[in-house]
């Protein structure tokens, strides 16, 4: 969290399964921090069950990308948020922008 405060990346890519703090806890902490709450967060995980997608959405994830995914999908999401950052500040909207569906396809 300290590193996010200092470096302010364009986008956070987070797995759900991580040591010390899982991706859901990281997302909760980002959304609870006034300085970070609008930062886009993409969850990347092998957990593709609907309950995990709903939890990520409810916590404010911008996208949920299930494994396996293609390089093109991931690069498309990164490009999307890089372009948003270079333009006017986007409104924070859970799961806004291109939608990643259950089979991993990106749709507008």
From TrEMBL:
Under the heading Pfam families, the entry gives:
Response_reg
Q: Which keywords describe this protein according to UniProt? A: Hydrolase
Task: Please give the PROSITE patterns that the UniProt record associates with this protein.
Answer: RESPONSE_REGULATORY (PS50110)
Tell me the first and last residues of the signal peptide. none
Class of the enzyme per the UniProt entry, highest EC level: hydrolase
Q: Where is the composition biased (Low complexity)?
A: 96-108
Residue limits of the Response regulatory domain?
Answer: 1-82
BP term (GO), one: phosphorelay signal transduction system
Name of this chain's protein: Chemotaxis response regulator protein-glutamate methylesterase
Task: Reply yes or no: does the keyword Oxidoreductase apply.
Answer: no
Biological source species: bioreactor metagenome
| Xref: InterPro entries | Bact_Chemotaxis_CheA (IPR051315), CheY-like_superfamily (IPR011006), Sig_transdc_resp-reg_receiver (IPR001789)
- For region Disordered, the annotated ranges are 86-108
């Amino acid at each position: 969290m300290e590193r996010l405060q200092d470096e302010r990346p364009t986008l956070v890519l987070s797995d759900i399964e991580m040591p010390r703090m899982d991706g859901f806890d990281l997302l909760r902490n980002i959304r609870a921090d006034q300085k970070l709450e609008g930062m886009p967060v993409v969850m990347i995980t092998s957990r593709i069950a609907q309950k995990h997608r709903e939890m990520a959405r409810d916590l404010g994830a911008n996208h949920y990308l299930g494994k396996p995914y293609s390089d093109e999908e991931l690069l498309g999401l990164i490009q999307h948020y890089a372009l948003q950052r270079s333009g006017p500040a986007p409104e924070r909207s859970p799961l806004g922008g291109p939608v990643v569906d259950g089979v991993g396809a990106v749709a507008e």
